[in-house]
Design goal:
The chain is mainly α. The chain contains 9 helices and no strands.
Length: 244
């Protein structure tokens, strides 16, 4: 349970798709002019990541990685299909995006029209593919953790686009210098938000490692104190010898 909680908060705040690795910036900048539109796209990204990351985890575990085909028989144990990762991951993502596009067009035509070309472009959104590739590179162990990672990564991207959309709506009524209006001030705000999210980097540190760190620091201080005492004693002896 603790592992799931740690992965959830780490994916949202520490390894945020936008502010930590700067993935999905095209949609983040283009569809963040209105909060309503940002909410719709963010929800679509959460759904796509929540479905595609576990599906791609299954593909990676039982088809792509070295020895994954052992379940078919001993003669297939030496096969390595990892070179197909990009093709199969993108195919899975494109299928899910088409499903999302059909559902949004059916139940919310206004949102479908406001998202425009950026809804089908979720299929080539680097944040979506990045979620599956990070899942693969970080060697996530279980399907539940893969689902958790997909949902939390989507929530992190959702919070990022929602925050910048709310700020951009307020900026319209602010006296922004002419050279910085538009994308200029948006990039500056994004950078400042990225710096702010970096402050969460120490949120999951400490714990079991804290006593070791304290013990190490204490030992270093004791050693330093001994060295200083020896230096002081030598200095006193040298001074007494001169006086004599």
């Amino acid at each position: 349970m603790l592992e799931h909680i740690e992965l959830f908060f780490k994916s949202i705040f520490i390894d945020n798709m936008v502010f930590a690795v700067f993935l999905g910036m095209c949609s983040y900048l283009a569809v963040s002019k209105k909060v309503a539109t940002a909410v719709g796209l963010g929800a679509a990204v959460i759904f796509v990541l929540a479905v595609t990351v576990p599906l791609n985890w299954l593909l990676d575990q039982y088809l792509l990685r070295d020895g994954a085909l052992a379940w078919l028989g001993p003669e297939y144990a030496d096969y390595n299909l990892s070179f197909l990762s990009f093709i199969l991951f993108i195919a899975t993502i494109a299928t899910m995006v088409q499903l999302v596009e059909i559902v949004v067009e059916k139940f919310s035509p206004s949102l479908y029209n406001s998202l425009g070309i950026f809804l089908p472009l979720i299929a080539v959104n680097c944040a979506i593919l990045g979620g599956s590739l990070f899942m693969q590179s970080r060697d996530i162990q279980t399907l539940g953790l893969a689902f958790n990672y997909g949902v939390s990564s989507g929530i992190g991207w959702f919070l990022a686009i929602l925050a910048i959309a709310a700020i951009r709506e307020k900026i319209r009524y602010s006296n922004v210098p002419a050279p910085l209006r538009g994308l200029g001030i948006t990039f500056i705000i994004t950078g400042l938000m990225g710096i702010g999210f970096q402050s969460f980097g120490g949120m999951l540190t400490g714990g079991d490692e804290a006593p070791e760190a304290v013990e190490k620091n204490t030992a270093e201080k004791v050693e330093e104190k001994k060295i200083n005492e020896e230096v002081d004693e030598n200095a006193i002896s040298y001074t007494n010898a001169i006086n004599e």
